[in-house]
Specification:
The complex is a heterodimer. Chain A is an alpha/beta fold. Chain A has helices at residues 60-67, 90-95, 113-118, 127-145, 160-173, 190-205, 217-223, 246-254, 313-320, 346-351, 361-365, 372-375, 394-407, 424-436, 454-469, 481-487, 510-517, 524-535; strands at 22-31, 34-44, 49-53, 75-80, 83-85, 98-101, 178-182, 209-214, 226-231, 234-240, 272-282, 288-298, 302-306, 328-333, 336-338, 354-357, 387-388, 391-392, 442-446, 473-477, 490-495, 498-504. Chain A is globular, with a radius of gyration of 25 Å. The two termini of chain A are 39 Å apart. Chain B is built from 15 helices and no strands. Chain B has helices spanning 11-36, 41-53, 56-81, 89-107, 113-142, 146-169, 191-197, 210-227, 229-239, 241-246, 251-278, 289-299, 304-327, 333-349, 355-368. In chain B, helix 3 crosses helix 13 (304-327), helix 8 runs antiparallel to helix 13 and helix 12 (289-299) packs parallel to helix 14. Classes of the chains: A alpha/beta, B mainly alpha. Chains A and B meet through helix 10, helix 11 and strand 18 of A and helix 9 and helix 10 of B.
């Protein structure tokens, strides 16, 4: 919702008297048989925010990696500020004034912000001079761009939003005048994202050129001046942001019309499938991450848990799936009661008919080094159907995987390919296939569409609604408010480990939910829920 | 600074060409050293090759060394697949041998060989496994780093053996700490004897039928790692522990199981040495096999088939090196160890050194052909 141009009124076109900050001509790049970029040309005016959108695997990141020197293009030329340059490695890129903020931060946890910023750019044998210089430079950057981070804080102690600022500072410290951000909001809360966009606006006002890679169209509409659409390695469209809209961009991205909202019938809730009562989970410091939480999920309904990331949703999901132990309270899956004295493990939870699509698919959901057919049975690998005597039966498992891939439209549908080599959306579809395939009584889903492209989002949402309609109880945890509102029949709002409100799915609106997520509401609903929790 | 290779290397280059290149580099450096001390490197290579593979006695010794390397190489590999680095093969082999020795000291005349054989396989494996179990437990349940504990356990094993041999197991009335020789009927048949059953005559070498057990272990371990649910869990823990936990795997138990197997495999060195070769308990029969096993596993890319090849190579180096020291007066025993060290250095520690060059060359060559010749190896 933020506006990049705030009150400064910089015109979207940027300063046209300057040469283009970046001009790529005819860039092509192939990995083996895969043509990641095909004759891509793009021109980024100095002092503008330039968006590049496209589905996962469209070639956005490859293009930027070429610009930043991670890969060398097979063909094509690069011009920075009107001059032809050869970028063979990231040092060349930095020398040309290009800075990159990666999707995954490249910081040393045990270093302070200051140390992280100056790392690799120190001069002299002794650190002292560099530290003084870096501190002064950080202060200047803070003044100029309003980028405040405590220089002496340890990286490990900062929230993600701040870490991202450190990454931006790192680039600026090295003299970057062109900043590439690769999916910068993937890990941010909406509030943090808004702050980021404010910072980007300030940077732009100071003449920094920004390239924003994302697949979130709202961000493109909110902050960019120009937008470029990539599909299948090719640049398919260029638009001035103010002259286009989300629907058009979405169509260009996927090459067909997208239904904005998923069609779903009213829920038809039945018996209670999952009961949570007074659930408390503490971290190793004894702080309650999940604090006296109570709720129920019935068959045939989707219950959504909304909340700003980091308010206990992850811990709740891990406790429900048996990964972490509960400290107080009770979870009941049908007839099995789990209490601190009667703990459960993920294997047993699965046997009780509870499936779990974890929040972090690469860290939890699959082993990226495994072949797809191996990842397709993770958690069910002890199943007798997959064994032949003492041994796993690869033929059976591969056939099983191929069938999952076919039904859930996983591409490419080849079980032998390494799990890591699938795009995010296809990895997610494979995990979803694995978990939904057994018609679970309860499905726990965390961030089902994080980092997933639009086409796959639609498909994944459809699957969740279908499971509900077949009588499954679905607990959906997502930081995407839109997603929760689209799917959930009931929405619970989580704040600091507690459930602070409950709203019916069709009565929810973004503004009210947003306020609830920040715990800035005083409504009867909310106090009701709190009393409920306390009495349990 | 990081320039990723543009095309992934096909498998035959990765597991075939690169290791061979590493050995060639090591041999070139060795050749240089041999040249500097005034011998002819080409002669040296010929002597080594002939000494290791040129006649039946040489082959016998080469395969005997190979047998030990297979066991310790497999031991390192299975631990590696679980994400652990078992440096304790040395100690586990030592204690495995102790187990066999104790068993045979008591039972060498009491039981027939066809019972002693499986019994000693079991005992050597169990003793080796037991020695690995303590570091494994400390790693899994107490978080002590297994590299540190297994190294320490090598020293403890060494001290324990000296104590036992000097104070308890020594054959009375002699100076050297060796036990009495086991009864003839309890010895594993040498390969020369096996060949003799079929009427063929080959030179008498330490090579005994344990070599078959070693090859069987390769197949069994391959099947375990890639074809069973337990191996699946082992690899899941090794590659991504949180995902393994999510999948209902208990990493602690998996670590225990993998390390017991690892220790057991290392323990089989004791079977080969004590029951197959020396026929009595003695000190330092395991010397160097445990550590070389790390290089073997690295070179064999932790795959049983690769480990067979790497073990064979190290067998050739051991045996050929011994011949070399014998034939060339200027090349001492220490010189041979240096050559072995260079091979370990280039194919173990610097295993991936040549990859960027190979990758560059491959990319230049493959650029001409848009469809890369995919390796079927």
């Amino acid at each position: 919702m933020t506006s990049s141009t705030d009150d400064t009124g910089v015109q979207p076109g940027g300063n046209n008297s300057l040469p283009a900050a970046i001009e790529l001509q005819g860039i092509s790049k192939a990995f083996g048989l895969v043509q990641a970029n095909k004759d891509v040309s793009i021109k980024v005016e100095a002092g503008t925010i330039h968006g590049i959108v496209g589905e996962n695997g469209a070639g956005k990141s490859t293009l930027m990696s070429i610009l930043y020197g991670f890969y060398e293009a097979d063909a094509g030329t690069i011009q920075i500020d009107g001059k032809h340059v050869q970028i063979k490695n990231s040092n060349d890129a930095i020398a040309s004034g290009i800075g990159m903020v990666h999707q995954h931060f490249m910081l040393v946890d045990t270093f302070t912000v200051l140390e992280n910023v100056m790392m690799g750019a120190e001069s002299g044998a002794l650190l002292r001079d560099s530290v003084i210089a870096a501190r002064a430079e950080l202060e200047r950057l803070e003044k100029e761009y309003g980028l405040h981070v405590d220089p002496d804080a340890l990286a490990s102690e900062l929230p993600v939003g701040q870490l991202q600022r450190v990454e931006i500072l790192k680039a600026l410290y090295r003299g970057a005048r062109i900043l590439i951000l690769d999916e910068p909001t993937g890990v941010l809360t909406p509030q943090e994202a808004e702050q980021l966009f404010r910072i980007l606006g300030a940077l732009k006002d100071q003449g920094v050129t920004i390239v924003l890679i994302t697949h979130k169209l709202r961000e493109i509409m909110d902050v960019t001046d120009n937008v470029e659409v990539m599909r299948h390695g090719k640049m398919v469209a260029h638009r001035v942001t103010s002259e286009t809209n989300k629907e058009e961009l979405a169509e260009l991205m996927v090459g067909r019309k997208i239904r904005a909202d998923i069609q779903k019938e009213d829920a038809n809730p039945g018996a209670t499938a999952l009961v949570v009562e007074g659930l408390t989970v503490r971290d190793s410091y004894g702080i309650a991450k999940v604090d006296n939480v109570s709720f129920q999920v019935k068959t045939g309904e989707i219950v959504g848990i909304a909340g700003v990331s980091g308010n206990g949703q992850s811990e709740l999901l891990e406790a429900l799936s048996g990964i972490t132990a509960l400290d107080e309270g009770r979870i009941s899956y049908g007839d099995r009661d789990v209490t601190p004295t009667a703990p459960v493990n993920p294997e047993e939870v699965r046997k009780l008919g509870v499936a779990h699509v974890p929040e972090d698919r690469q860290k939890l959901g699959m082993v990226t080094d495994f072949s797809a057919w191996e990842s397709a049975i993770l958690g069910y690998h002890r199943d007798d159907a997959f064994q032949k005597g003492l041994f796993l039966d690869p033929a059976t498992v591969k056939a099983h995987c191929a069938s999952l891939m076919d039904r859930f439209d996983v591409r490419p549908p080849t079980p032998e390919i390494k799990s890591a080599n699938f795009s995010g959306g296809n990895q997610q579809k494979l995990i979803l296939a694995r978990e939904i395939d057994r018609n679970p009584k309860v499905l726990l889903v965390g961030q089902p569409t994080r980092g997933v492209d639009i086409g796959a989002i639609e498909f994944i949402h459809r699957q969740l609604v279908d499971l509900r309609d077949k009588g499954g109880a679905v607990l959906l945890i997502s930081v995407e408010l839109e997603e929760v509102m689209t799917l959930a029949d009931r929405i619970l709002v989580m704040f600091e480990g507690r459930i602070v409100a409950e709203v019916a799915g069709d009565k929810a609106d973004e503004k009210t939910l947003g306020l609830m997520m920040a715990n800035a509401m005083t409504e009867p609903e909310m106090s009701d829920e709190q009393t409920d929790g306390a009495s349990a | 600074m990081s320039s990723s290779p543009t095309k992934p290397l096909p498998r035959w280059i990765d597991v075939g060409l690169v290791p061979i290149l590493n050995i060639v580099i090591a041999l070139l450096v060795s050749g240089l050293i041999i040249f500097i001390i005034g011998e002819d490197p080409w002669d040296a290579v010929q002597i080594m090759a002939y000494g290791a593979l040129g006649f039946d006695e040489g082959i016998g010794f080469t395969l005997y060394y190979m047998t030990n390397f297979i066991f310790t190489g497999l031991a390192v590999a299975i631990a590696f697949h679980t994400g652990l680095f078992n440096i304790g093969g040395e100690g586990q082999a030592y204690i495995g041998g102790l187990g066999v020795g104790l068993c045979l000291l008591v039972l060498d005349t009491a039981l027939p060989i066809w019972i002693l054989m499986p019994l000693c396989i079991l005992v050597s494996g169990m003793f080796g496994a037991a020695w690995a179990a303590i570091p494994a437990y400390l790693q899994a349940y107490r978080g002590s780093h297994i590299v540190i504990t297994t190294i320490m356990f090598n020293f403890i094993a060494s001290a324990l053996m000296v104590y036992l041999m000097v104070n308890w197991l020594i054959k009375p009335g002699q100076m050297s700490p060796q036990s009495v020789t086991f009864a003839d009927q309890s010895h594993l048949p040498f390969m020369s004897e096996v060949f003799a059953w079929f009427g063929m005559e080959i030179a008498q070498t330490p090579l005994n039928i344990t070599v078959f057990w070693a090859l069987f272990c390769c197949i069994a371990l391959w099947a375990f790692i890639w074809r069973t649910k337990w191996g699946f869990e082992t690899r899941a823990v090794g590659h991504n522990e949180p995902a393994a936990v999510y999948g209902g795997v208990d990493p602690k138990r998996t670590i225990m199981v993998a390390m017991l197997i690892s220790g057991g495999l290392a323990g089989f060195v004791g079977l080969n040495e004590i029951m197959g070769v020396h026929h009595k308990l003695l000190l330092n029969f395991q010397l160097g096999y445990g550590f070389t096993g790390i290089a073997v596993a690295l070179m064999g890319r932790n795959h049983p088939f690769g480990i067979i090849l790497a073990s064979l190579l190290f067998g050739i180096l051991y045996q050929g090196g011994a011949e070399l020291a014998f034939e060339m007066p200027k090349i001492t025993r220490e010189m041979v160890v240096t050559i072995q060290g260079l091979v370990i250095l280039f194919s173990g520690a610097l295993a991936y050194m040549s990859v960027p060059w190979v990758s560059k060359v491959y990319n230049i060559l493959a650029a001409d052909k848009p469809v890369p010749a995919e390796g079927e190896a």
